[in-house]
TrEMBL record:
Name of this chain's protein: AraC family transcriptional regulator
Organism placement in taxonomy: Bacteria, Pseudomonadati, Pseudomonadota, Alphaproteobacteria, Sphingomonadales
SUPFAM superfamilies found in the cross-reference section: Homeodomain-like
Keywords from the named record: DNA-binding, Transcription, Transcription regulation
Keyword Transcription: yes
Residues covered by the HTH araC/xylS-type domain: 210-308
Amino acid sequence: MIHIRLRIVHNMDPLSDIIALLGPSAAIAKPITGRGRWGVRYRAHDAPGFTIILAGEAWVAFEGGAPLRLAQGDFLLMPTTPPFSLSSEAGLPCTWVEPRGEAVRHGDQPGDPDFIALGGSFAFERANAPLLLSLLPDLIHIPAAQGRATRFGQLIGMLADECLSSHPGKELITRRLLEMLLVEALRWRPGGGEADHRGLLGAMRDPALARALRAMHEDVRAPWTVAQLASVAGMSRSAFAARFGEALGCGPIEYLARWRMAIAKHALLRGDRSLGRIAEEIGYDSASAFSTAFRKRLGCPPGSFARLHGGGGPELSPRAPASPHRGRGATG
């Protein structure tokens, strides 16, 4: 499996930062076909799932929700995959099945299928996935009618052509197209006023919150206060804190502390920087201050975390070269 790893550059926008830390790659992509009347149910599984309808239609349903019709050209992304059912008609009885890595056929086995989809899952960097996925919506559904005229629609068309071909390099091209689709889906803005304003994507659609988020991500080392971020957002302190908490599920300083630790974990797994360098890059006065904060949040020192998750190396030491940016502090 080929994984793309991007180094974080802090003049990137928040969504690009998150995608870079997740390091997404298409882990499984398989054809799903069906004919006649059929219904299957899947248990929750610990991987982001997706479905692209290439021909026909189907109905997907999640616990406690109404069935959702998926038609040709539709794209469905579940950053975390809860239990769900997929069927040829809404309300059909469904049989429990286990996810498999190979092609799947539902319903009548003989004859040409009347339903064709590409389904599968993405692999993310595990250390930061829980935090970063919590900032994304539970479900992203892009109907063909809304995505067709965009680059997203063009990618769907290219992917459909590739899936139906037998060209050399088909698997590699399919994986790359899926990774591009993931990014396009995460930054897609639904029409018709149906956007969910919670989570990072919703917050980035709010001009005031977007300004504050960009400021934090562009200068993660700065000793931000709620008052300073409210000024960047052009709001009063109390109004900004309330709106930020409603959108992101935590206060702005807590969000910043979590983001700093996400950057730190990513750096520890790479194993190419000292503790002092990591501390300086995310706004701590010293390696010891960073180590204390890391242990408080993660329950173990940075070195133990790196060894446990297969990171670390000769650079993982407290010492770091002198830096002109010393003197900034951080909490959390």
